[in-house]
Each structure stands twice: as structure tokens, then as C-alpha cells.
């Protein structure tokens, strides 16, 4: 498996744009219709429909959809000591980073003019729904990344859905992680039926206001459909295949660069990995290291597929590489250069940045502390990675004293009149006429 | 015009739910197709298409789409002294409130464990597009509410579109407000063609990453369509008709309450206004005051229509009223009771809250300082009103020292293995093997 190599400067604008294009994703009309049918059915028949689809898609017959206390206890017992400790350590780090976000007091309480008190206050979203994929690849890390901020934000209702195995059990790593991260309402439901159940509520699943988390094409399409219904639930961010862009100079260890590219490529066949470097020699060595490392990897088939829409690109300077990266807006950006921190100020659009030779993306995926739910597919130019703020609302408040009314009322009256809204003007005028200060 | 009166306690659950239902809004299939055609045309033919639709929808022949310096100067001259002063005063207050948001340093820089440095950094969105409706009702206030946070957030490219009059001019209030609020790139384009032009760029209009602002059905549908295209532009929030919920007790002045209800009702025929009060007497007096005030108002026809899906509701206590309001999640919530501030902690979902007798919604619409772009139609339960954060991105950063790698690498390795991602484990293992500390 040889990755294609390009020299950025030698390409025309068209070819450059093409190189930065992501593999196309699009929900087929069939998928949209299938998902719509599932959502309608769950809205109409609740748990009955949920159980039917669980039978159909997960081959599991589930009587009680909700995970019971004893199942959490069994999950803990079934994990090895090292696994439990790793999950607990990861939770500690992630909690530390997200508690730091809570500790920033963003609320505002000021007088904009004398007597006009204005505030901006934070409220946790009442009910949030967390989706954690499982099945062939259970993701305990996703459970941590969703449950921790939801808990720290203080959302009163926190619901987590994850698909069951055919025997009706749920992945023990996911159960243990969710429990330790502060989520006890876990349901054995996957796919579009889980999204519909949380968006509209059923007999056993509470309705939520916002949905979070990754998922397959069904989950993604279902999140998008319920988010476009005012009576459904909002969603965290649009989905897309995972991706990494590595910027490296001649000082980088090619084995590290190769491993970073491969670890992103193993996520799925539609993943994209790009290397930008000013060193032709590094490209050569990385190329060889990829071939060598690939031999020992379990998911070589997936990797080979995803490498087919990836590239090693030679640029004239690290400065150019940063500019290209800002244009591409990668989900993950690894800067493996001498003094990587000097470039940080120039990075304007990236989900998460990894600085230096000792910070592989794997650390951020699991346990550096940052959140691994990140905007991908170019959405890093207009969406942020998951943080406490997405689990909260900002509400503004104002209160005028007589002085405040005197200072703002006449302004409002003029502007309302200018916009031809005389009832707006009247609401102010009535008060000004009664007001002592005016 | 008599508003219907209800007693909340005497209604069954079904009737209660029905009372809190918003008037249905839905884009027709025809509208969706029309908007899609406009977007495709603008994508393909750029300025040519924009000019064609400006001719068709605004009856205006525009040669130069961009507003020139002289036009800003003329706009200023054509406004009266009072109008200019009112706009400047409003800008001062709004700027004050939004600068307070910038002054909160939300960036984070911590070690989650020894040697594992994690940061969260703020970046302004590179390019934002602001839409300001005009035509029959030009909205200089919308120009202020969008341009001020965009400028304070420091978005390098700030584009504003507003539809021209038939003579090719733009409303002077909008031009003056935009200019004073820090936006100079103003284009004479309205409707879906403006949204398409900003989302994809044309010869004369720069492509933006996110779109902000209110609009008619065409604008709303266009924003939603370009937001669902990864190559388009994100949008601020879903749209819906404006609404107010007033909570008042027996101490409230019925003239004020009536005027507040009417001022919301004049926004459009699909607006909704609700009064919740524990005083039957207040309902009677408000009802009479509405009839009386309505006689003198210009937009009586619109108001009458919007009052037809509005209601005066008697509740058993202000406490109940707050609970009902949280369920309804109003865009605007006026709390006109004795000691209104005592209820603030219990309010969990509202776009903007107005406390006390002297704080009509008109103040927030124009000049208290808070932003009037707010989630409506129930979206206040899962979206925030406009603030600086929507003009910014949060980017996470991590950097491991040898100690940091030693503290987190083994955890990542265990979790990657647990999730069956061995390339992730390898990227860590290679470094741990070379690392001094391990």
C-alpha cells in the first residue's frame, strides 16, 4: 500500500482544491425513508416499536429496556483490573478538563446605562440524550466523553442509549464508564430507534431536549431528522468520517508520523489522513514505515481502503502547511515539528490540536482530558468540539429602574417608530408617562 | 377583539398541552423546490443569478451590488438627529453588554495530570454573513444586533446583505447602523439569493462560514438548506414566529400588560402572546385595555390575526405560572409581579427575561443592551440567544512532556486495545518504548 505523494506548489488551484476534498458522504433517499419510517413508528407505538427494531437490527429480544443496578455491578466484575483502572484514570483526566470549563464564571451582571441592569445567566439543558455506538466496536471512551460533561453541566435528566448484544447484554466497558461518569439511566437500544425514543420519549424512555454522540448512518440520519422537528431534539453537531492532518518537519520521527496516520485510518474506510511536510526525505521514510507497520495491524483492510483517499504532500514551508490546514479545517491536527507551540497562534480552524512528538492523537481519543467529540468533514470552520457550553443554555435578563427606563425608553421609542412598530412605542410611552424620573 | 380566557386548573392535560401549542409552521414542498432552484442558480452563475432574482423579487436593477462609501454618507445625512442619536445610544448599550462577554476569559490552560498540558482556546469564525430584512419593514435594530457581536468577536470577514428598494437604494437606518456597528461590506441583496451568495460566494460576494439573522420564509428555508450542505454555511439557530409570555400578579398595571401583549402581537400574524396570572381581575382589566389600545394602533389587522392564537390564562399561583413557562420555553418572558427577581432562579428555559413593571420587551428589542436574536418556537429549551460565543470556535490543544506521556500513554494503550483499535495502541507504544520516563 503506497500513499500517493504530491508537491503542493506544482499543482494548479483546481488540483489543490481536489486534494483537500473529503470523500463524499450522502444519505441515500432509501436510508432517509427507512429512518423516517422508524421514527414515525417509535413516535406512534413507543416501546413496542423500539423492541421490534431491536429484534430486527440487533437480533436481541429485550424485555426490560433499562439497564438494572445488578447489570452495572456485573459489568464492573467482568472487566479486568487494568481496564477498570484505565477507565477510572481517563475519567479523572477528562473530568479535570471539563471541571475547569465549569469553573470559568461566564455569567454577566452589569448596568449598560445607569439603572439598566442586564445579565446573562447559564442554565443546564433540562434533559440530554447520549448515544454510544457498540456492536462490532463498543466505545467506552464515547460514554466517558458524553457522560462527563453532561454530569458536570448538571443536566437534571441524562439518558444514555447503546445497542445490546444478541444475548441482551450491553458492553461492560460502556456500562462501567457511564456509571462512573455519572449516568445511571442507560437503555439497551441502538440505531434510529434509540434516537427516536430519546427525541420523543416512550413509556420507558424520557423525552430529551438535545442529543449527543456519534453513530452509524442510521443514527446520523435520525439525529438530523429529529433536529429539524421543533418538537424533536436538537443535536450536538453534524457528523462525518474521522480525519487527521499531520504537519511535520525533517525533525519528526517517521515511525511516529506513520503510526499517527495509520491510527486515524483504522477508524473506518471513509477516514481521511493527510501529511503536510517540507521534507521530501520524511515522506519517503513515512511511506516505508506505513508499509512496515501495516503488516502487523488487525484492521489492515479498513486502513488500506481509507488510505486510498489520503495523501502525503510536500509543501515549501511549515508556514504554508499551516495555511493549508486552516483551509482544510481538520478534525485532528498534529503538529510534529521543532518548537510546535510557535505555530499555535496561527491555527484558526481545527477541532483538536496535538503538539510535539510525544502527543499522538490516541491520547486525545482516550485520556489527555480533552473531549474527543469533534467537528469533522470541514465543520471545524463553523462548529466547536464538545464542551460544557453545549450542555447549557444562555439566558439574558434585564430589569429597568425608573432611572434605567428614563435612560433607555426614549431611545426605544424613536427606534420603534423608525421601524413602524407603534405598539412597541406605546409600551414604552405608557411607562414613561407614569415614570417619576422622566 | 376578545382574547380567549382559560382557567389552567380546570383543563385536562390534553387541553393544557393544546393551549401551549404554537401555530404550525412548515415549509411547503413548493417553497423548498423554489429555494433549491435559486441556490443552484446562484452557485452556478454567481452575480448574474443574484441580479436576476433581485430584479424579479425586489423590482430593482442593481449594477454594483456592494454599497459604496458615498451611500453610507448619504444614509447618515438622510436620518434625523433624533434617529441618529437613538441608533448611536442603542449601539453603545449593546456594545457594552457584548464587550462584557468578550471580557470573560473562557480560555483554559491546565495540566490534567503531571506533564499533560491541555488547553481550550477561542478563535473567531473566519467569515460571517449577516442578513437584515428590509422592504416593507426595514430593521436597523437587526443590523445592530448582528454587526456588534460579529465585530467584537473579531471575525475577520463580516458581510451584511439586505434587500434594496425598487430604486436601488438601501434603508438609511440599516446602512447607518451597520456602519457604526463595524460592518462596511454591505450588499444590496435579499431573500434566498442573498443566503446562497454568502454561503457559496460569487464574483463580488465573499463566501462565509456561518450565517446569522432573521428573515422571511425564503430566507429561513435557504439558511436551512445551505446549513445542511457541508460546503455551505452553518446557521445561527432555527427560525420561528416571535412570541411573548407574560407572568403577572394582581399588582401589575393592566395597561402595561396589555401594551406588552400587543407589542409582541404586532410582529406578525403568526406571533403568539400568552398571559399567565393568578388574578382574575387582572385578566378582566387587561382584556378591556387591549380593546381600548388596539383602536389607536396602525398594525391592528396583524394584531387581530395573531391574537386569534393567543390566550389569557388564570393559574392558581405564580409558582405554577413559572412551571408552565418553563415547559413552554418562551422567546420573551416578562415577569411583572411584586419582587420579580425572586423567581429568576426557577426560570430554566427562556430566551430573554424582562423583570418588573418598568421593563417592557421593547427595551430588549432595541436598546437595553441584550441581544434580540433569540430562540423562539420552543427552541429556548435547546438553543441560546445570540452571544459572542456563536461567532467564535473553541479549539482544544494538548501537549505531552515525557512525564505526561508516561502518565497517560499506558491508559490510552489499554483503552485502545479494549476497543480493538491496535493502530491507536501502536502509536502510543512506539513512543513509550523510546521514552526516557517510562
Search tags:
6-stranded parallel sheet, globular, homodimer, alpha/beta, 438 residues, 5-stranded parallel sheet, 16 helices
Count of alpha/pi helices of chain A: 16
Give the H and E element order of chain A. Answer: EHHHHHEEEHEHEHEHEEHEHHEHEEHEHH
Beta-strand segment tally of chain A: 14
Distance between the termini of chain A: 80 Å
Estimated share of beta-strand residues of chain A? 15-25%
Strand order of the largest sheet of chain A: 1-11-10-9-12-13
Largest sheet of chain A: 6 strands, parallel
Judging from the principal axes of the Cα atoms, what is the shape of chain A? Answer: globular
- Determine Rg of chain A (CA atoms, Å): 26 Å
Portion in helices of chain A: 40-55%
Low-confidence stretches of chain A are none
What structural class do you assign from the helix and strand content of chain A? alpha/beta
Mean pLDDT of chain A: 96
What kind of oligomer do you see? homodimer
Largest interface: A-B, 139 and 139 residues
Strand-helix topology:
Two copies of one chain form a homodimer.
Chain A: E1 5-7, H1 13-19, H2 29-45, H3 47-58, H4 69-78, H5 81-103, E2 108-113, E3 116-124, E4 127-131, H6 140-153, E5 157-162, H7 172-180, E6 185-188, H8 191-200, E7 210-212, H9 217-227, E8 234-235, E9 243-248, H10 254-265, E10 272-277, H11 280-294, H12 300-307, E11 311-314, H13 318-328, E12 332-336, E13 352-355, H14 361-366, E14 392-400, H15 402-418, H16 422-434
Helix pairs in contact in A: 2-3, 2-8, 2-9, 3-8, 4-7, 5-6, 5-7, 6-7, 8-9, 10-11, 15-16
